[in-house]
Hints:
The chain is an alpha+beta fold. It has two helices and eleven strands. Strands 1, 2, 3, 4, 5, 6, 7, 8, 9, 10 and 11 form an eleven-stranded antiparallel beta sheet that branches. A hairpin with a 2-residue loop joins strand 5 and strand 6.
Amino acid sequence: MSDYGPRSGLCCGRAARGIAAALVAASVLGSPGIAEGYRRGLASSVGGASLGRGHVAWIGLGYPRAALGWGVAVHQRVDLLLEAEAAFGHPAQSDRLIWGGGGGLTLRVGVLRGRTSLALSARAAATVYAEGGGVAVLLDLLSPGVELSLRLSPIVALHASLRVPLHYLTQPPSFGGGYEARCGVSVVVWRDLAVFTVIGAGATLWSVHGAGSPRVEAVAGIEYRILP
């Protein structure tokens, strides 16, 4: 009998510790904040994770632009993202350097929210730059897109999107359409402060050229999220 007593006590002790650890983990993971954060995913200015009831402000720098933005949730699954930018390269022709600026508004509607988040988007924007001794305006005509986010951990998320750019250029007058695929990652570095990076590539087909012109994007930045 004495041989079984210590072993039985040891097994009971291990079982008790296992149960205690499971209860602690369940209480942490089941807390409202953690549960809401997991359901919402990593809400961001990029990707498909909508803000829920929050706000986000961001600064991005890269090619072909530097941008300052602010986003707000107008509904549980609907975001408005407002952006002002300085342009260093042509938004729809990667082989052209320009100097200009403008801004845009993106509507993002969440379809799926959680560890995997999916949203539909539409963007309207205008970029003004010098062209042939005058001024040209490139208009983004509610370009539609599909945004996807995948949460890898409480602080890391992957993002991907596919957008159909619809443009009107005033000089020379022409319409353009095409595609643009993007991917990126966001990482929370301190509380609601995160860093992100996005790269993209695609092509634009212009009505006056009859041939596609390449479009590329590479932007890195920081964002501050004000989430409920």
